[in-house]
Amino acid sequence: MKLKYRIIPQGAADGMVPLNWVFIDKKDVKECGLTDLEACYAVGKALGDDCAAVDIIDMDAVTVTSDGIMAPGAVVGVASVDHGLINQNYGYLNISPLPYSDQMIKEEPHMKQWLMDEYKGRPLHRGPSAEDRGNRGPNNENMTMTGRIANNNCGSEVMNMVEMTEILAPYFGIHEIMTDGEVTIGIAGPVVSVGIGMVVSERHGRIFGGKNLGAYRAGMSAHNSGKYAKTVKQDYPAIAAPKSVLAEHTLRAFDIGLVAGRDIGCSPAVLSLAKAYGKPIDLDNITERAWIELESIGITREKLEAPSNVMSREEVIAHADEIIPGMDGAKKYAVSDICEVRYVEI
Amino acid sequence: MKLMHTRLPDFYTKIEAAAKQNDPNMGFSVSGLENVKTAKLASLRVGRVEDEITEIIEDKDIKKVEVVLATENPETLYTVIIKGIEEDGTCKKIILENMMLSAPTVETHLFGVKEIIDRRANIKK
Question: For B78, what's the count of Cα atoms within 13 Å in the CB-facing half-sphere?
Fold first, then answer.
């Protein structure tokens, strides 16, 4: 029996990808009768003396981006492998499903998206439970580490700690990889650098929040770095979905009445889409510290309040590339051009 | 016993002595605590390390002992102390901040090694 896995090898996308990144479909793991951890070991062994970050994706589940947009599919396990090894305490992280509760919907208004027809009833995975985190201490991030490789924020930021390289993939980029779609790869730049910090507050979130709600709510910046926020992640390469995909899912959140800057994060993408789609933005709920970061990349209250033409859903999606500010010098790739499908004998 | 602790300079002296107890020409190096100037180390662990060095040098093929101290948790939390110093050297203001640091894990030392004996306590195995 063979386990199928996808790998974006180091050097892919005209040299932009600095390390191996492996994606395994949970369905393929189950078909082989393996646990997720066993699947990571199998891939690690197949890579020999090489190293990789590994994400396991359940395409039947749902997840949430850090700025609060619900997405189909979810990262359900992450690992760092090097020379076939996985660190016993820090090398693997399971991400258990989170149960539905009325309290969640009340405290985390963006989770109303889970009640939409297309997502209702699907298991939700965001961040790990206390049990998933194992021996990790309160100050450990949701990260795996083995040898040279770290895989952070539940499989969206991966690094080589010896070469000190890194690449990011916002979740919709991972979804494109799993569905053989199209990705945009470029240098994150100032806009994405600021946007990554505009999160929502959750319990057991991808990045923040455990037993208690994450301290940074919609309208705040988790970076809280003032004029430096636009520089903190600007130099890293990133793998993103086409902007039309991001637009389509974000508009769904607006369609059920969620408000930018109040119910979902105040990232440049969310604000730009709300403006174009003529949906309300809770400008007063955006904190002074978040405004400093937004203004540093040219997004001001004045511009958001200025009258503008409201577009239809179809128009916003068609013009997403012009509406959503994004990466610097990004190039589009068919996933099949950067990602190899490989098999390892079990 | 658990409360007894060894001075950092004594630790260095003791482990080098253990490495060279049979052969003064045995190679020796210790690394990992370069930024730590003063510290106390758990005495019982110092004794165990001395005993383990003794075990390592029993093998006649061994010509050098390298002792590396790495953090058990590879993602360490530091406190950043940002000091504002006046002309006369007085510290007038300090801002404290956190810094998480993720470093290569112990596995980077293990690749291709024939025999690894793990005697660490409190490690999930």
Answer: 11
